[in-house]
Amino acid sequence: MSNAVANGLAGAGGGIIAQIITYPLQTVNTRQQTERVSKKGSRNSDGSSLTSKSHAAAPATGTLLQILQVIRTEGWGGLYSGLKPSLLGTAASQGIYYYFYQVFKNRAEAVAAALRDKGRGDGTVGMFSWLVVAAIAGSLNVLFTNPIWVLVTRMQTHTQAERKIMEERREALLREASERSLIDSTLQEKLAGLDSEKPRPYGTLHAAREVYTEAGITGFWKGIVPTLVMVCNPSIQFMIYESLLKHLRAKRAANKQGSKTVTALEVFLSGALAKLGATVSTYPLLVVKLLDSVTLNAYTVKAASKAGDWWEYLIKILSTGTLDAIIKMIRYEGVPGFYKGMSTKIVQSVFAASVLFMVKEELVKAYTTLAHKARKLY
Which domains, from first to last, does the chain contain? Predict the structure, then answer.
């Protein structure tokens, strides 16, 4: 087995373990990112406030409170909605990524060694090369696994969307009661029915059929452009990670004492620092990537012909795709909207990356040890 295949399998295993541990945080974070709150004071062109009752979301709460709310309303299963396809996606994504990453890493190290033999460089791969290696591996990974993540995101947010529909139906019934100036037995029965109604079961095949019905086969690659842009996240992450490991190994070599191998704790901390830097620098892109058509429609201007408001004209002209999302985010939420839910994402992604790096490196070490012993036997 080549070291690329070994790293791919180890990456898949580490990714599965990290995903299971941190999945509840990922579910809550996805909901935080996709539930938009309009910037205070923003108004439609007809003068109505975008933060009116029909558009306003519930006040933001802390991550722990949101987890408890999901448990209360949906049970423990709500925190793990979409876990099965997510584990499949994680295994495939990490396996493919680490395989290609190791393939191109081997090539980069071979080039660096060849340049050293020619008197150029010290034989180690530079930061820019790590950036390129990670970017190429990430791009290939995205093309192969984007359909899986489209389904995972849809399944994670399905219950949230169902609840919004029920809330709208409840508001409609209350408005009807207000117009009648009373609540009769029929309305009471309808309200009681809504209160007892629970979100419908929503599986992977159901999600896949909906995606195909709505957008055809290309729907499975929805958001591919911002996802490819998000390749800069693992690129930055691995650039920092490999640089930290290079520094640690160089320091060990200079001291000439003890083992020169990096410990599991050092890998864990290096992975945490690397992911923290990558997440903070690329989080706005992740928010834009997760915006869906329902979210964008919530920002649609009711009367885009208001004289003198150039924002309205710009939104109307550019009302498609990623650029549309960015324009509407700035218009209705301001810059803070791009960082909504970042604290949860930092906790989830940093811890997940740390666990993944640590488990993956330990699995690679175990494989290397077993392979070395096997070679001795034969």
Answer: 3-150+226-377 (1.50.40)
